[in-house]
Amino acid sequence: MPEIRLQKWLSAAGVASRRKAEEIIADGRVSINGVVVTELGAKANTASDVVSVDGKAVEIEQKKVYIMLHKPEGVVTTVTDPYGRPTVMDLVSAETRLYPVGRLDLDTSGILLMTNDGEWAQKLAHPKHEIKKMYVVVVKGVPTAECLRKLRQGVLIDGKKTAPAQVRLLEQISITETKLQNSKLTITIHEGRNHQVRNMCEVVGHKVVSLKRVEIGGILLGTLPKGDWRHLTPKEVKSIIGQKIKKKRK
Question: What CATH superfamily is the domain 3-57?
């Protein structure tokens, strides 16, 4: 984690010039994590420490970073994991600390966005903005037209009906060993309920074999290899900011 001298921190935060910052430190007006520091050589960690002047926290204006990760199965979408499982943080190397926006289940792969921009993350994750997310789903069996209709119109999960979804049957996959068939579909939703796509499919009688998210708000996973990540383009970042909130009909 990057550490910098206190006077550089105060200067970068716009509190004072470095020379003036040295006077502020020497006067005992600066603290790190609540402990007053008067040494001019003292350093603070930009990722974990809280620096305050006269009791008020001062933050360095960090460059906004936006990345896309192709999350593999078996990786948890958390910053840390108490069970020692690999997390998405293990796959990303960035100069600033990033946080995942939303989540993907342990057994689900696909596009996961990460950032240090809280406002952008809130826009992406808040249900009222109805940001669309597309999944490629392989299910056991072949859904009937009636099953597809139910998925499109919404099904009951825990007593609450899901919002209408876009559902398309892509292909039927033969399993020669058992003479059974699986099916591949795309399902596009804008809600974010736990295990939603898996539960939707099981409600209509088709257990999910594999699940992959391939799009969020018009940002496509594309050919990014599993486990790799890349920075979003300015156009992709703005595409989320520019998403219009749908007005509910009265």
Answer: RNA-binding S4 domain (3.10.290.10)
| Six-digit token string for 233 | 């383009």
Structurally, what CATH architecture does the domain formed by 132-216 represent? 2-Layer Sandwich (3.30)
How far is it, in rounded angstroms, from Cα 5 to Cα 237?
32
Q: Given 90, 105, 117, 158, which residue is catalytic? A: 105
pTM of the model: 0.75
49 catalytic residue (yes or no): no
d(CA 104, CA 114): 12
- Counting Cβ atoms within 10 Å, is residue 221 exposed (0-12), middle (13-18) or buried (19+)? buried
| CA separation, residue 112 to residues 85, 151, 178 (Å) | 18, 24, 35
Q: Residue 163: CB partners within 8 Å, gap ≥ 6?
A: 154, 189, 190, 191
Average pLDDT across each block of 10 residues of the chain; the chain has 250 residues. List them in order. Answer: 82 82 93 93 87 90 88 94 93 83 94 90 82 96 96 96 96 76 96 93 97 96 97 91 48
The dihedrals phi and psi of 248, each to the nearest 5 degrees, come to: -75, 140
CATH class of segment(s) 66-128+217-241: alpha beta
The answer to whether 66-128+217-241 and 132-216 have equal CATH topology is: yes
